[in-house]
């Protein structure tokens, strides 16, 4: 009789669940659902329970791993808060999952679990230390040091998004100036493009054609598209974002000296020029003796789900 | 029969040696010597051998730990280079010590060993993660994570000195702009005071009186003295240095989330106002949920020697 592992990923725009046999690397099955607009924590849980029940078809899992897109206390399995959906504050996710499925559960945030997933199944296999950075709506990160997740003294490690890149830079949502997240995230890129297009429309004609007259429709993805079509304004914006990310990576390399940086998230699909600027800036920012590589994520947006498998698997092994 | 541990500290301005019984926390004896001007690696070694022979009086140590004030490959015990003294490049310090004293030796850099010393014998006792920062001629650091030294993938972790605090800031010796070391080190402080005193002498009258007409005689220590006597120019300079250090600490807290920061080195004796600015800026820079303390070092300039004891002791225990 095999042990089944149930992996769950509570995301900002979609939820995913998967079932895998302990020790295997191929899913028995997995499912996704788009999150409802203006949903609540209760609805999110209902959706996830339903996905999981469909996959389990009556089986009881041996262990559950869950990824959550927000701050989590990994020791207690308590969700601290969710920035997008109401009702998550201080919700005991670990306990709720254990009650629902009758199996031990472990919970962590998506950046930590993406790092764990990439380390065991993705771009970080065979490496002892890495920093996974997700560049998406926001910017976050997760650490693997000595082959283990490093969560920090109070589960807050990895917050590269609010590394100050330029104290005279634009205001970030956190109230500080020139944070990496403000300069390099999808939101920041869209905002910069909007500002520049209002100021000097003649440089952003390709972007303007893509987006039409409604500048609020600008997204990082459209900027990226225009960038690769040669739009000057979009190049200016994305070059700056890549520079900021490179500065951040170089600083982190000096501080912690990991073997590998893995970059994931939608924004990192911006193309060769974007990656070149990141690599070049990071190399210049780091001291000559500090060696590292920068690689794209391998698992895409399934990385947290794979990390949830590893979390459940490792904890199950420890229980035995 | 007790095991004796020989601890050595090859410093920039002085060398120190100590002998301690394994498992004890009180020196059997220790000695210091000022380094010669324009000395060589060979002379440094002769001085150290002589100090050690005086302390050992014919006994053979069970293990040797050595701190070196420059980049070291801790795995092989090879000194990479020394920025002050000729002849150290690629010197196999571990092997030289083993040949001289007939005992196994381990070598690491001074910032790592100061972190280790403070963790076991000083301000970091009982804490599982800390970052030790030395603010002296330069700025460097050493990591304790999960109760162990974290050296990085190629022994370069802890280089907070070249964290970029302000990309539009003054040129650092490393060729980059606005590095923490340029803004907060003893050298940087002295340079800023010299520049400002040339430009607006009316604000630095107390400093001017302390130093006389020879502005090249300005040191961070004199700036600190003038600062505590109310010199406006010195306050401006040291406030900026404290701000830069606080920014760096807050960023590191977000990235790695250690329990404790320990600050050592001569510059950190600048007084209450300097510490207040560091603590306040670090708190503002860190995210609200990121908790940490900032404490002064406890062991002063003996921290690397104590760390050398821990390094030798731990490796000796592993051999047994």
Structure in words:
Two copies of one chain form a homodimer. Chain A has ten helices and twelve strands. The first copy, chain A, is 40% helix and 19% strand. Chain A has helices at 41-56, 93-101, 110-121, 180-184, 186-199, 205-211, 220-228, 232-256, 272-285, 303-319, and strands at 4-10, 14-21, 29-34, 63-68, 72-73, 78-79, 105-109, 130-135, 139-145, 148-150, 260-264, 293-296. Chains A and B meet through strand 9 and helix 8 of A and strand 9 and helix 8 of B.
Briefly characterize the structure.
Chain A has 320 residues and is α/β, with parallel strands linked by helices.
Question: How much is the average pLDDT of chain A?
Answer: 95
Put simply, the count of helices of chain A is 10
What series of H and E elements makes up the topology of chain A?
EEEHEEEHEHEEEHHHHHEHEH
Distance between the termini of chain A: 16 Å
Give the neighbour order of strands across the main sheet of chain A. 3-2-1-4-7
Spans where pLDDT lies below 50 across 5 or more residues of chain A: none
Query: What is the C-alpha radius of gyration of chain A, as a whole number of Å?
Result: 20 Å
Largest sheet of chain A: 5 strands, mixed
State the secondary-structure class of chain A: alpha/beta
Percent range for β-strand residues of chain A: 15-25%
The count of strands of chain A amounts to 12
Q: How would the global form of chain A be characterised?
A: globular
Oligomer: homodimer
